[in-house]
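Replying to the earlier thread about multi-chain prediction with a worked example.

Input:
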Amino acid sequence: MPKKLVVIGNGMAAGRALEELFERAPGAYEVTIFGAEPRVNYNRIMLSPVLSGEKAYEDILIHDDAWYETHGITLHRGKQVVEIDRAARRVTAADGTAADYDQLLVATGSMPFVVPIPGATLPGVVTYRDLDDVNKMLEAAQKGGHAVVIGGGLLGLEAAAGLKAQGMEVTVLHLMPTLMERQLDPSSGYLLQKAFEDRGIAVRCKANTHAILGETHVTGVRLDDGTELPADIVVMAVGIRPNAGLAKEAGLETNRGVLVSDDMRTSDADIFSVGECVEHRGLCYGLVAPLYEMAKVVAAQLAGEEAAAYTGSVTATKLKVTGIDLFSAGDFGEAKDRQDIVLRDAARGVYKRLVLKENRIVGAVLYGETGDGSWFFDLLRKETDVTELRDTLIFGQSYVGGAPLDPTAAVAALPDDAEICGCNGVCKGKIVQTITGKGLSTLAEVRAHTKASASCGTCTGLVEQVMALTLGDKFAKSAVEPMCGCTDLGHDDVRRLIRAAELKSIPAVMQELGWKTSCGCAKCRPALNYYLLCDWPEEYEDDGRSRFINERVHANIQKDGTYSVVPRMWGGLTNPRELRAIADVAEKYNIPTVKVTGGQRIDLLGVRKEDLTAVWADLNDAGMVSGHAYAKGLRTVKTCVGTEWCRFGTQDSTGLGVKIERFMWGSWTPAKVKMGVSGCPRNCAESTCKDVGVICVDSGYEIHFAGAAGLHIKGTQLFCKVPEEDECIEVIAALTQLYREQGHYLERMYKWADRVGVESIRATVVDDLTRRQALYERFVISQRTAQIDPWAERVAGRDAHEFRPMANFTLAEAAE
Amino acid sequence: MSEWIDVGAVDDVPVLGSRVVQAPGGDIAVFKAADGTLFALRDRCPHKGGPLSQGIVHGHSVTCPLHNWVISLESGEAQGADHGCTHKIPLRIEGSRILLAASALMARAA
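Result:
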C-alpha cells in the first residue's frame, strides 16, 4: 500500500523532487499536488526568453499532462492551499478541496517583493514572477509606449531587455550605484550598464522611486529628486521573499523562510520543505541549481535514504539576455586577506576578475567572455589550490601548462566530475557515459537523456563540445541541423538538390540523397511532399500518405478524434443563404459547437469523421468550398469594410481582400499564411500582425509582411508601397512564391524573413522587376493545379477509404 | 465463435496507410507498412488516446496525429524517450483475407 505524499506547490523544485523520487522509489507514494497556478510545471527561469519572443510557453514546459498521468499524480491546478492541519494530517485548499497525507512537502516558493509606495497597486504595475506576469507585459508591449522597470538585478534587467525587444521605450531604475551589485563588482556593473544603454535602454542608478503616478492606470513614476518619467507599465523587480506564511500558520518553525535541517525536514519530521521558501543554515536561495540540489536530498529522504544531507550551495549566476555574456560566482567583496587577478580588454569589452584567498578562488566575475566560467567555478567549489596555475590562471583553461588553443582542448581537459550544466547539475562524465552507453548522436537526444542544456540552454556550446570529443568526426559532420534523423542533409541542401538533380518523387529523393531509413519518417515525408509539390507543380502527384491527417482529410482533428469544418468565406463576406446552409448542416448532423474564428470564418466543431463527406456535400450545394483552415497554405484574408461603408476608408479593402483570396486560395506554402487588408491606417483588419497585410492609404497600398500573432507576437515590417491594386496583388503573389521556394517546411514567413534577411527579399521582389515577374508567373502556373476544391473531390469519391471503417463489429455484438 | 474473425481484404488497407475496425471494446487500427506487412493495434495512443489510425506510417512505426508520439507497430510500445504501450491485436493472413483474434476483437474492455 503506497504512502500518501501531498505536495503544496507545483514549481520547479517540487517537480524535480518528484522526478528524483520516482527514479529512486517508483510506486512508493501516491502523490497529490496542489498548484496555485492554473497550469503544469514549467521552466520559470526561461520566462525571459518568452518575454523577449525568443521562445514560446510550449518550449519551456517541463512536465506535460502526460507526465502527471503516467505517474498517477492527482494535480489540483489553480488551487491554493489555505490550511495545513498537522493533527489530522490533512491540507485544505481555498475551495475546500482536501487531501490527507502521510508525508507532506511544502514547496510554496517565493513572492515578489512590492515596494509599498503610493500607487503600487495601480493597474499597470506588475511583478515578474510567473507566466501571467509575462503575458501582462506582452500585452502592454503590444501597445508600445514607455516601460519603467524598478530594480536593476537579474530579473529586472532581463525584464527590461525583453520589453525593449518587444518594442517599448524602457528605463531601468536602480537604488544602488551599480547594476547587479550583489553579483557584480562596480567595473563589470559599469560594462553591463553600457551594454544596456547601447541597446537603447535608459539606466538610472541611485534612483529612489517616490511614487507611482496615475488615476485609474499607471501614467508615470516620480523619483525622490522630483524627476517624473512617463510609464504605460511599471515592472517591480526589486527582489523576492520566501513564501513561508502557510507553514508559519501551521506552527512550523520559520524565520525568513521555512526552517529546515540538513535532511530537509522542517520542525515536524513528517513535513519536508524544498525550494525558494526554504531557509537552510541561515540562507535562502533564489537560483535553480541549489533548489535542484535540495530536491535530490528530499527525494532520497522520502525514499528512505536517511544519510542523505544537503549542506548548502555555492551559486553561480548567468544573465539570460541574448548578446550579453556575464558570469559571476562566489564572493568578491574586498578584504585584507584577498588578492585580485584582473584582465581587461577595453576594445573588446572584456573584463575578468578572480578573487583569491589563501591561493584558492573564492569569487569570479567574467564579462564579455564567459567560456571559462565553468572551469573557474569548478576550481572554486573544490577549493583547489591554484598556486601552480596562478601565472596564467586568468587567461583560462586553454593556457594551463601551455595547452594548445584548440577549442575543444579546454573541454577535453575537464575532469569527469566537472559540472557542465549548472541548472540540472549534470557533469561531463555523465554526458560522456550516456552518449557512449546509449549510442546518442544528436543534441536533442543528449538533452532528453541527460537533461544537460535542457533548462536555460546557455551551456549548449559546451555540451556540443563534449559530444564532439566523444563522437569524433561523426558529430562534427552534422554542423548543419539535419532535416530529421533519416538524413544528414539540412532543409536548404535537400531543396537545392531536388531542383539540381531534378528529383520528382519521394522515393527518388530518398534514393539519390542516401536516406538512412527505408521510407522516411513523419518529419521528413511531409516536408519532401511539400518541396516536390512546390518545385514540380504540374508533374508531381501529391502523396496523401505523407501528409498529416488534417491535410489528408481536409478538416482539423480535435482531441476526441472528431473534426472541425470551416467553409471559405471570401474576405470574410457571407450572406443569408450561406448562413442558412451552415445552420442547416449544424442541425442535420448534430454538430455540437458553432464558433466564429479570428480569421472571420465560421467553425463547425465536433463533426464525426464518417459525416465529413456528407457535411461537405451540403456545404458545396450552397456554393461553399473548403476554407483550408487545416492547411500549410493560404488560410484567410481578413478585411474591413473599406470605402464601401466606412467613413474613413481610403480604398475598397473588402474588394481587394476578396480578389487576393480568390487568386491565391488553394496554394500550399511551407507553413500557414494568414493575410489581412485594412482600408485605412486605423487597421481594423489587424493587417500588421499577419504574414502579409495591406494597409490602404489615399495614395495607394502599403504592403506589410512577416508578422505573427500566435505563439510569437510579431508586428509586420513595411515591405513596400505601390500605387495600384493590380501591382499590389502582383507583389503579394511574388513575395508568397519566393517564400514557397525558399522557406523550410513548417517555417512561418517571419522566421523565413529573419533567416534570409528582409533586404534580400526586398531586392528580389521589389527592386528587380524581372525576377518579380518570373516569381509571379511561377505562382500563376502552380495555381492552375492547386485550385480544385478538395471537399468536392472527396464528395465525388476520392480517398473514400479514409472516411469509412473497414468493418464494424459493435452492431454484431449488440444483436447478440 | 471461431478463434479468428475475418475483418476485410488485404487490399482494403492502403500501403503506408491504415483502416479502422470498429469493435465493442473500442476501435482497432489495421496498418500496412511499405513492405506490405500488416499490423493491428488498439486505435488509442498510450499518451492521450489519439487515434493512431490517422497517423503517418513509416517503417514499422506510426506517428500519432495528436502529439507526434512514435509507436512501434510491432510491439505497440512508444519509441524514443516516451514511455507507454498500446495493445497489440493478434493478426493472421489467410489467402487475401485479414483475420483478427476473436478474443481480442470482441473483448469489451480495451
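Chain A touches chain B through 31 residues (CB under 8 Å).

Feel free to reuse this layout for your own posts.
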